[in-house]
Design goal:
The structure is a homodimer of 330-residue chains.
Chain A lengths: L2 H13 L10 E3 L6 E3 L5 E11 L11 H17 L4 E11 L5 H17 L3 E9 L5 E11 L14 E4 L5 H10 L9 H9 L5 H9 L4 E4 L4 H12 L2 E5 L7 H9 L4 H8 L5 E5 L1 H10 L5 E7 L5 E4 L5 E3 L10
Parallel strand pairs in A: 4-5, 9-12
Antiparallel strand pairs in A: 1-2, 3-6, 4-6, 7-10, 7-11, 8-10, 9-11, 12-13
Chain lengths: 330, 330
């Protein structure tokens, strides 16, 4: 059965089920002109949106509809995490060719619903339209944050340490495996591919960082180099990172070596790891580390704006780290 | 200059200006991982989204980038109006080919910014991505409504009158003029085309209706027939409308006659008029009419659910009014 056969309204009936997990906040979900939701007193609202385009952001030869739905939500959750917030309500818009199989659309929604359920996010509305072109998925996500827990990109201070919440470059290495058809070459291939196709947004950690005086956070969507430059520019500071301190798994090393590429480049420019890059005062970090057992890695420090954003090589040589990375339209 | 030449980040710098009109509510606009906004105490939040796809929803041979931007916002404002709400914050996502001229994108944003300014709506974020296919524009809009002013689609009561806020079919007639190249045939062509390309969302009226006990509202996006069926179904009532009472301008009559079509069909199935269809108790309507000078037209009444949704012809003959209209994928 295809979309053309059942039409837009029947589709809405099919996807309505299992969309509201946090019932107290939803007065009216899918079905009216707008969704009606309540907010939490004393909280600020966070609004974010991400658009995924077929053959630009995803390739249905590599992923499937379930994983695609999952990732479309995950990338938005990651943005809310990067503000220290709690994700709440999602709006889902999709442009789909008329001959799209209904079972594929339901799989896409299943992927969205499962991750929404995991993070107690309600799907409260959306728009489904037809297209003669590639599939386009847009998610708009509303989150909340207590005023005192809000962490902006602009709060990094000279003397802060720069940290990252997990190993980097795995998503890029996973994509390399897919693009170079190396699935059978490495016995860990599946794990790296999963890092790329089903990223795990660091929502709980983002909230912990908000409660524990992180001075800035950015999620790693475009690569470490790009995110470092964003924090530096927004905070009007310099950043010095140390190549040797960047956490990269031995599996990523292996893929890079096999392809005769630099594993550090995967971490710096690959992007889509969706780990959190953040800054914290050394004393606050000590308190935070005592309280929380989390994989976090100090990779550098915040320095005077005049120093710019630099990376220190194994031999102590320092070079400017440019904001290359995944920039659309280039 | 094209998008490819300047890249995503430079584009963001270009469009940032003049996006925040209601400064008190915006803590952080365009630029961070998510926008940060405050809500009004005692208000509920309204969330809506609409996606426009090139050659499905718009045709750049008929419209221009400015008008397109304007309409992309207008259709969302109309959804907030249909809940009795006040529009507040907008997120704009766009998929654009890499060779899109920057001046066209700025025109698109100008169209969005001007209507946002008119309704005091802030543009607080978005996503701009590349595509190999048609242009896709998604707007997600956040509004607010006092709990007691919220008007859902589901509140129509037997005995209520059914009203519409203005003449119908004009947008469809405007589209006919464009599609049949009749611009030079009618001296009023420009006005009807404008109704189609630059719809005027009834935001103030929606708020007035919310304050004046309208029992249900729907905005006319898919055509009167479809919207009547939506109110009937959501409210579990029947609806009887009278063909003779449906307001249609003499210009629409003229276009229909010229094309040998039914002017009533334009009103019933054309859609995109973005007038409000609403129901009100006769006594409340009397009070409302005394207080407010607005062009509103009684076109029918709410009846028992068993009667279904019917239209009464000039000769008193009654027929079932099916929910035909602009249904995607059919």
């Amino acid at each position: 059965m295809t979309l053309k056969q059942i039409g837009e309204f029947s589709l809405i009936d099919l996807i309505k089920e299992d969309t509201v997990h946090n019932k107290d906040t939803v007065i009216e979900g899918i079905g009216d002109d707008a969704a009606v939701v309540s907010t939490t007193e004393g909280y600020l609202q966070l609004l974010t949106t991400d658009m995924l385009v077929e053959n630009i952001h995803f390739n249905l030869n590599f992923t499937d509809f379930y994983k695609l739905g999952n990732k479309a939500i995950a990338v938005n959750l990651s943005d809310i995490a990067a503000m220290g917030g709690v994700p709440r309500q999602a709006l889902i818009s999709m442009a789909l060719p008329k001959d799209t199989e209904i079972k594929n659309i339901l799989e896409l929604y299943k992927g969205m619903k499962d991750i929404c359920k995991k993070f107690s996010v309600n799907i409260v509305g959306g728009d489904t339209v037809s297209t003669f072109g590639p599939i386009v998925i847009n998610v708009a996500l509303v989150g909340e944050v207590k005023k005192e827990n809000l962490v902006k990109r602009s709060g990094a201070q000279v003397g802060d340490l720069l940290l990252v919440s997990g190993a980097l470059g795995s998503s890029a290495a996973g994509l390399e495996i897919l693009q170079n058809d190396l699935k059978d070459k490495f016995d860990f291939a599946k794990e790296l591919i999963k890092k790329h196709l089903v990223p795990n947004p660091r929502v709980e950690l983002g909230q912990l960082l908000g409660k524990n005086k992180a001075t800035s956070i950015d999620d790693i969507s475009d690569g470490l180099a790009s995110e470092c430059n964003e924090i530096a520019s927004a905070s009007q500071v310099g950043i010095r990172i140390y190549k040797e301190k960047i956490p990269v798994s031995k599996e990523v090393h292996a893929v890079a070596e096999y392809l005769n590429k630099s594993y550090v480049d995967y971490a710096l420019y690959g992007g889509e790891d969706f780990e959190l890059l953040f800054t914290m005062n050394p004393r606050d970090l000590e308190n935070f580390s005592k309280k929380n057992i989390a994989d976090i890695f100090v990779i550098g420090e915040i320095v005077n704006v005049k120093e710019g954003v630099t990376i220190v090589d194994f031999d102590g040589q320092s070079t400017i780290l440019e904001a290359k990375g995944y920039n659309h339209f280039r």
